[in-house]
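User: Run a structure prediction on this.
Assistant: Running it now.
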Amino acid sequence: MEDYGRIIIHLEELIQASGLSKNKVSQRAEMQRTQLNNYCKNEVARVDLAVLARLCHVLGVGIDELLEYRPPETESADAPNTHT
């Protein structure tokens, strides 16, 4: 399968910076604590846009602070190009 990069959720760092506890964030964002932990550990297969909106609201951040796209690792310059 081709590597398209990945999405990183910076929730753990944002919660720490906010000074709120994870319990408080999960309550205010109306989500289960286990769901919050999965988002913190980047163990979410399908993100819920409503959850992302609530997290942004509770933490006072934009979506660009919460999510980051990391492109795939670049191939070395002398490696043959196998993509057509």
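The mean pLDDT is 90.
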